[in-house]
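ugh ok fine here u go
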Amino acid sequence: MKAITISFVYWKNIDKDIEEAAKNCVDCARYKADPTKAKVHYWEDLSMPWERIHVDFAGPIFEHMFFLIVDAHSKWLEVYPMKTTTTKKTIECLRDSFARLGLPRVLVSDNGSQFTSYEFQ
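structure:
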């Protein structure tokens, strides 16, 4: 918690103030003894390229977003610069990639609005 806070703000005695705030936090005390454990997800082994792809957006970088498609087997990366990250533009990029490389068996996303919209389904 300290590292995150200090990366945004700083004042004299910030360490002591953060420790004091955490010590007096009811929720922190309740979950300190038994933090929720996330289930580890193991991906199945892949036998060929383009069986599973992972998609996401990166940016903004110099006023552009980048749509990334990564093949989990070969680590091949497709990058599409985009001014807007709409569902329509996302579908256009996927169609372009699928036309050249074929349809993947599995597409993994972060369930962002572009991937959960009615148009995408």
